[in-house]
Design brief:
By secondary structure, the protein is mainly β. The protein is built from no helices and seven strands. The chain has one domain. This is DUF4352 domain-containing protein.
């Protein structure tokens, strides 16, 4: 659901689903960080401008530094992709 710019390859991608409420947790692990998508939900826009589809997808991401170097992330480092016929397109 989300992607982060990274020069390192992914070691592990883990998905867990629970039948109650279709809770889905995704973890991504590299040599320098662990990333978890903790929650995602559609909300109404907070500002006066309306998105093209009228909804905003809000996601909560947890990032843990497991490397020796400091990490810096900004909202511009993330993008949402949608799978269309086995091709992921930016949304």
């Amino acid at each position: 659901m989300s992607a982060c710019k990274s020069l390192e390859s992914t070691k592990e991608v883990k998905q867990e689903s629970a039948s109650k409420g279709q809770k889905e947790e995704k973890n991504q692990k590299s040599k320098s960080y662990e990333m978890t998508l903790e929650s995602a939900e559609y909300t109404l826009p907070e500002r006066d401008s309306t998105p093209l589809n009228g909804r905003v997808l809000k996601g909560k991401v947890g990032i843990k530094n497991i490397g020796k170097e400091a990490l810096r992330f900004s909202p511009d480092d993330f993008a949402l992709y949608v799978k269309n016929e086995n091709v992921f397109e930016i949304w």
